[in-house]
Amino acid sequence: MKVTVVGTGYVGLVSGVCFADLGNDVVCVDKDVSKIERLNRFESPIYEPGLEELIEKNVKAGRLTFTDDTKQGITGAEVVIIAVGTPSLPNGEANLSYVDQVAKDIAEAMTEYKVVVTKSTVPVGTNERIKAIIAELTDVPFDVVSVPEFLREGSAIYDTLNPDRVIIGAENEAAQQKIAELHRPLTENIVLTDIRSAEMIKYASNAFLATKISFINEIANICDKVGADVTKVAVGMGLDNRIGKAFLNAGIGYGGSCFPKDTDALIQIAGNVDYNFKLLKSVVEVNKGQRFYVIDKVKKALGEISGKTIGIWGLAFKPNTDDVREAPAFEIIEELLKLGANVKAYDPVAMNNFRREAGEINVTWCEDALSTATDCDAICLLTEWDEFKTIDLQSLETVLKQPNLIDGRNVFTESQLEQTRINYFSVGRRDRKQTTTDTITQ
Fold first, then answer.
1. Comparing C-alpha atoms, which of 438, 399, 437, 391 is closest to residue 417?
2. Is 418 helix (H, G, I), strand (E, B) or coil?
3. pTM (2 decimals)?
4. Phi, psi for residue 26 in degrees, rounded to 5
5. Which one is catalytic: 18, 28, 223, 258?
6. CATH homologous superfamily of domain 291-441?
7. Structural domain spans, the chain
8. pLDDT of 274-317, one tens digit each?
9. Helices (H), 61-167
């Protein structure tokens, strides 16, 4: 098919590249000229493993092109996919201004029938809004279809090419079947539904996963107090088929572009119809507090934080991405600085993005894991990059001023720590702290 994708963020770019790789003729549109220039040089504006190679492959094969001319990009397409951002407004509602603008651009460029597909995460009723905007500006026939995305940053290509399911919401059966045909090479597990249900499925899915994360973090906090091990609790829970093992990794809370934004938006959606979504409000509250777990552990390790040097491993909200949106590192570093600490920080990929978003802050930026830890009174692991997971702990112990490791992602095991004198503090597991010069207790 001839497919145009408007928006070259995580969803739009990955979707466009993957549809091209399946043999479709794809045009990716973005008004940011610098992005298009980079993409035409096979440089991805986002970090996603394997994406640049896939871009180059499909551009050279003639299946993938990039343009900043929206009208040119839309003209001739059978399917136009809206994949622009819907960031949160101050009140938590989704900002639909970019979606509205794309709808207007589509209407102005249309000369023949098209199927307009919404992949952006939008509140219930937005596809009807898109339909109304387009219909007001053109008499050319079209249909609007909702196809919410479920990809994970860091594994977006795999998730796009191997989806658990594809949700297709539509009013017109012919349009629905056309979009099903586009997705059928990816999976036979295609759910056909109405538009409003498709919109709701996206929010409900993310809200449930966020709830699962906050739940296991609450369990971890109790384990911390009663002497249980949350990692073993999670294994026991996850073996129950009704629960499942995914999203039961205790840590310092979720971040990124989806869960914080979508939970806030769903709370607002509920509020707009006079429903108080108390459970989800608690999920958000738990998540906001969980990131300060690291601060509590630093205090437990050091007592007084003022004047101490604290290292930070990881600034992205998760590994294998340069996305720092809603990353716990922002608030953790801010709190450490407020408490008078000297902060050193490093991330293998997300340093530039973090520094740009953080602005002028008094942090020493480092070049690798060990230089970050050198002369620190404690090192805090916030993002479970492989570089940190595979670090030689004996070398780490050697460079630390005080051998304190605060593991916000429960990366390390007792057996890995056995040959070291590192004081180890994790989430929902017993602390490992030396009590004398010769003894380590657990």
1. 391
2. coil
3. 0.90
4. -120, 135
5. 258
6. NAD(P)-binding Rossmann-like Domain (3.40.50.720)
7. 2-193, 202-289, 291-441
8. 999 999 999 999 999 999 999 999 999 999 999 999 999 999 99
9. 70-74, 97-109, 126-137, 156-161
